[in-house]
């Protein structure tokens, strides 16, 4: 019974281990079979990425490389005359001889050893006793000290090497030039050769023309999970890409970039070799010994490569082999491990295809995976491991248009923020890096008023810009999509008519009549001179009769004449719906009054404008407009006005009225302070009136050569020119000093040795001169 117990225990242990290793259910057996059938490398379906993102990153890297300046004059000059190396040789010898040491003796007295008492009877009657004592005993011990081999130490060197070393200046220059060439190499590599950007296509007439190659970035998600079959092995993923048969020529795709090209780890390699030999001899006469020590230590940093990108020529199969390109990635065990690290790895390739960019499918791709044996000591990749090759199905490479549209955009997605600003919400899912362009203004993440959210984009812009300028959504590759109201039901431009009525000399009422439009198109605004009128910052009056809508706004008359074109357009509506017209009508011209001259009884003025045939003076009611030009198409644009001198001195404004409109007010220019005919006798005067913004004026009179200073409101006017005869004085810089900023009479002080003379300069808006022929 006892002999059967070990056998039973062994059988039970085998059954237990077998039950732990082998799957017990059919489903588990299926999973186990799937794992064994797999080679541990799973490559997902190639994904197409936005090539513009990669291109922007490469461009940024290229710009950073260009900015590197490695040629350092200071560093080169500082190495002139430096010590680049030293050699020291020393020689020393030492010998030591030593005889045996002198023995030493030690005497020890131990005292008497014993005493013996005996009775001697020579005769029967003799009872005498004899005592015998032994002398003390002495021990003598002789010792010899331990005798070892002597030591001999060579003298230390009395000289030492220099404490600092450096490479020479020429070596530094050579190293910097090598780095410069390396930077240039990377710049050319990032920029890519021309073969990757353009291709030559032969037309039907035999002529060659150059065409840009469309670029595409493919990503390959690679999952690696090795098992015990792939110990000390390299995982290889090979990809073959082929252009479509309808490509522009028979070129293969060009590889612009492989990412990663290599992935490395910095590993410290330390090697230490040392040895020591020693020997010694001791005799009764002398002792001799010797020792020899040798060693070598090495410490350096090496690169342990985890990922390596390679290219290869696909094997020939058919006549289209010259339209295929091959590349691969190798994943190696690193840091002393025997297996490739499990996990998901992401690789990318940027390809340039000789195919039309608008093609829905631009090429096709084939992926194969296998394992190769790997020697960790030498870093060499060896033969393929049997039964590890797997090939995936051939997959097409589609292209994706980057245009992004907002599915629904209406007036409810806009909000007036006051101050001329509008908040716009765009619903939808947009790629990162998408931004908005309003005219020349770029609104993107990080700028004021632009935010990206999960469900869309919000941005803030000027109402005038949104109404006047084109607003587009721009993707990362530069594709633009217009932003406009998708719910607006208009299909043709608005019919627009404009009329202007003068309110006073400086203001006019603009009325724009347009076709009624759906509410889904938003509020129409009036666009004049780059400004928008119709929201909270510039309100207008809106009236409708169900068929037409009338927009009314009060504007400066000068602004209307400077900007005669009027447009009506809802904010962010399609520009096909804009309505345009002009504000000029016969009665829209403003009226102006200019002083001409005066005599002893009357002052004479000129009135000009449009439609003066139908205009009368309402106040003062005793004045009449007289015709100046006869038998001309422009006879109704100018009239003369004679005003009694007494009335002209106190009159501030005229009230005019057209037969077809209500009265309006025109400012009446003031008379000169004195009679010009008498100014010459009284003192210096300005030769003539000047207009607003004029920069110079001439003073005439006597003794003007004696003028010391010219002052305007305690400000000296230093730019003056005196005539040789002293009869005139030209004053410059009037506009900069503010003399001619507004239409009014200004006082200029002339500082003479005899005192101050004040001269009046009349500044007018415009002037009319009579030229005698």
What does this structure look like?
The chain has 773 residues and is mainly beta. 13% of the residues lie in helices and 41% in strands. It contains ten helices and 51 strands. The strands form 13 sheets. Strands 10, 12, 13, 14, 16, 17, 18 and 19 form an eight-stranded antiparallel beta sheet that branches. Strands 1, 2, 9, 11 and 15 form a five-stranded antiparallel beta sheet that branches. The chain has a five-stranded mixed beta sheet with strand order 44-51-50-46-47, with no helix packed on it. A hairpin with a 4-residue loop joins strand 16 and strand 17. The longest helix is centred in the N-terminal third of the chain and has 23 residues, at 169-191. The radius of gyration is 55 Å and the shape is elongated. The termini are far apart.
Distance between the termini: 154 Å
Strand content: 35-45%
What average pLDDT do the residues reach?
77
Largest beta-sheet details? 8 strands, antiparallel
Number of strands: 51
Total helical segments: 10
Helical fraction equals 10-25%
Basic shape: elongated
Which structural class do you get from the secondary structure elements?
A: mainly beta
Give the uncertain stretches in residue-range form: 13-20, 675-681
Task: Kindly provide the radius of gyration, computed on alpha-carbon positions and rounded to a whole number of angstroms.
Answer: 55 Å
